[in-house]
UniProtKB/TrEMBL annotation, chain A:
It is found in: Cytoplasm. Residues 135-144 have a biased composition (Basic residues). PROSITE patterns: THUMP, UPF0020. This is THUM3 protein. The gene is Thumpd3. Pfam families: THUMP (PF02926), UPF0020 (PF01170). CDD domains: THUMP_AdoMetMT (cd11715). Keywords: Cytoplasm, Methyltransferase, RNA-binding, Transferase, tRNA processing. GO terms for molecular function: RNA binding; tRNA (guanine) methyltransferase activity. GO terms for biological process: tRNA methylation.
UniProtKB/TrEMBL annotation, chain B:
Belongs to the TRM112 family. This is Multifunctional methyltransferase subunit TRM112-like protein. One of its GO terms (biological process) is rRNA (guanine-N7)-methylation. It comes from the Eukaryota. It comes from Calonectris borealis (Cory's shearwater). Gene3D superfamilies: 2.20.25.10. One of its GO terms (molecular function) is protein heterodimerization activity.
């Protein structure tokens, strides 16, 4: 897969700046430059997926966690089906080297003046088109949208149910939703992406299980309670659009905060379009991304992140599916490969695996009965979604769940091609001390079940020190490949690709 | 690869790859049959592992591990 990623990278990483496509001439097809946020570290993987599924080359920006690619507007449905992207937006314009004035007032005035000069027409057409795609999906949803507003908040502790929910501050990234809220002034801020869609319904079954797509998830405000975005936006007079501006700013040379930038820019947007500003029930979300001298103005195409799509039943540490997808892709699964997640939790990885690589066989296991139960429920939701309406039989999924002990796996030596798992971090589950014992035992047992020579493992962990130590003693079994540095719920973690050596494991399993 | 007792022959015939009816039965058992309640039995030790709601519990007891 490295070769694939490199090829995509070579094809995609163009040094020359790409301006927004020229407005469509008469009869020319509407095209868009799409920006996609992806798990940091997996930009190349995402670019490879874009190349494979859309045939477009991607540019990876220096603002990490984002890739850009061009597609015809009719390609939007396929864009939404990408598995490695969290959020999507259509680019209005990109500035590779924007010169900010040193004086704050001047810099902000420049941003204000910028609005009327931007090529909004085509991107807005794309936004409209995207809206109509969303509406087709929302119509089928009969779900109660009451908890929507709270999903946008930074800490929606109140929405959590279930006794085993940990503190929300440890949960995965929630978005900074207010226009231009930024944690530190002038520091190089790592920005969170989009709106984390936290499904607060812990134990409830979702009525309508179309989870494959951001659009299926609860919409932040469009079209539900307040009628924002409802109806005929193509017909301009029908109603006034509501909007908000979200600004992400990183860099230490700016004389203004993202809050200020958002306010000034927003003011000009309001003036220019005569839209109404609305923080929570907006139709149009204008994005102003500033990363040092790189400025990108965009319009959001997704409201809630795609990354929770497969999971209806959460656990305290559920991995987002975009990260799961990235990890799986790193292993380069081949048809008929046996893929095991021996610490599957709520099943994010095997579910993503079985969905995207259906010609592989996936086995998931965990020792925790709650986790196993939730994983099984998530699979049921998936099965229901796949149900054939006429015959009411559902196509099976090549995935099985077992309750087992990672140190005593009921799997034959050398029978597994791929192991992919999210190892306990010791922060939210377990403890650091436990990891010292657990990690070597895991690596040993995983080494035993993995096919010598061709087998590989992709392991996510935050406890890098412990992992390195455990791995250092296993050089005869595991060879270290690529390492991807990622950010999981605010924690700096690493994804290690390991290759199984040709050395056969000893048959120490007297029980099995 | 995991081993699953069924009405299949105890061992695959030497040229099983070409035997389509056999392959169909194996496919059916492996991918189309879901045991919801039952038991998985170890072919060597005879030890039984319960299956509940489709999930086998293969945790070993303290003594066994």
């Amino acid at each position: 897969n490295m070769a694939e990623a490199e090829a995509a990278g070579d094809a995609g990483v163009a040094p020359a700046p790409a301006p927004a496509p020229a407005p469509a001439e008469q009869g020319a097809e509407l095209a868009a430059v799409i920006g996609a946020t992806v798990p940091t570290g997996f930009e190349l993987t995402a670019a490879a997926e874009v190349q494979e599924k859309l045939g477009s080359a991607s540019r990876i920006s220096r603002d990490r966690g984002k890739i850009y690619f061009e597609v015809p507007a009719r390609g939007l449905p396929q864009v939404h089906r990408l598995r490695s992207v969290d959020n999507l937006f259509v680019v209005v314009q990109e500035f590779k080297d924007y010169q900010f004035k040193e004086n704050k007032e001047d810099a902000l005035k420049d941003l204000e003046d910028l609005v009327k000069k931007l090529p909004w027409t085509d991107p807005l057409k794309v936004w409209e088109l995207n809206n109509s795609l969303k509406k087709k999906k929302t119509k089928r949803k009969k779900h109660n949208l009451q908890s929507t507003a709270s999903k946008e908040k930074l800490n929606d502790n109140g929405e959590e149910e279930g006794t085993d929910q940990k503190d929300a501050s440890e949960q995965e990234d929630c978005a900074q939703n207010a226009a231009g809220v930024e944690p530190a002034s002038g520091q190089d801020t790592e920005k969170t992406q989009g709106v984390a869609s936290r499904n607060g319904e812990e134990e409830e079954e979702e009525e309508d299980n179309e989870q494959s797509d951001a659009k299926d998830e609860l919409q932040a405000g469009s079209g539900s309670e307040t009628k924002a975005g409802d109806g005929k936006t193509s017909d301009g007079e029908a109603k006034v659009l509501k909007f908000r501006v979200t600004c992400n700013r990183a860099g230490d040379k700016h004389s203004f905060t993202s809050n200020e930038a958002a306010r000034y820019f927003g003011g000009a947007v309001q003036e220019h379009f005569q839209w109404k500003a609305d923080m929570t029930n907006f139709d149009v979300e204008v994005l102003l991304n500033i990363h040092n001298n790189e400025v990108v103005v965009g319009i959001a195409l997704t409201e809630e992140s795609l990354h929770r799509r497969n999971i209806t039943h959460f656990g305290p540490t559920t991995l987002r599916s975009t990260l799961a997808y990235g990890m799986l892709r790193l292993c380069d699964p081949q048809p008929t490969d046996i893929i095991v997640d021996p610490m599957c939790g709520t099943g994010a990885i095997p579910i993503e695996g079985a969905t995207e690589w259906p010609s592989c066989y996936h086995i998931a296991g965990d020792n925790n009965p709650q986790a196993v139960k939730r994983a099984a429920n998530n699979i049921c939701s998936l099965l229901k979604k796949n149900e054939n309406k006429e015959s009411s039989t559902s196509l099976g999924i090549p995935l099985d769940i077992i309750q087992w002990d990672i140190c005593n796996l009921p799997l034959r030596t050398g029978s597994v091609d791929i192991i992919v798992t999210d190892m306990p971090f010791g922060k939210r589950i377990g403890s650091k001390k436990k990891n010292w014992d657990l990690y070597p035992a895991c690596l040993m047992e995983m080494g035993r079940i993995c096919t010598p020579g061709t087998g590989r493992a992709v392991l996510l962990t935050q406890d890098k020190k412990c992992f390195a130590k455990a791995l250092s003693r296993m050089g005869h079994i595991w060879r270290k490949g690529q390492t991807v540095w990622v950010n999981v719920g605010g924690l700096h973690a690493a994804v290690y690709l390991l290759k199984r050596t040709w050395e056969r494991a000893e048959e120490k399993r007297s029980f099995w | 690869k995991l081993g699953h007792p069924s009405e299949l022959p105890p061992e695959p015939a030497p040229d099983y790859e070409g035997d389509e009816p056999f392959l169909r039965r194996v496919h059916h058992v492996l991918l189309e049959v879901e045991v919801l309640e039952g038991v998985l039995q170890c072919p060597d030790s005879g030890r039984q592992f319960p299956i509940s709601r489709g999930i086998p519990n293969m945790l070993l007891s303290e003594e066994e591990a």
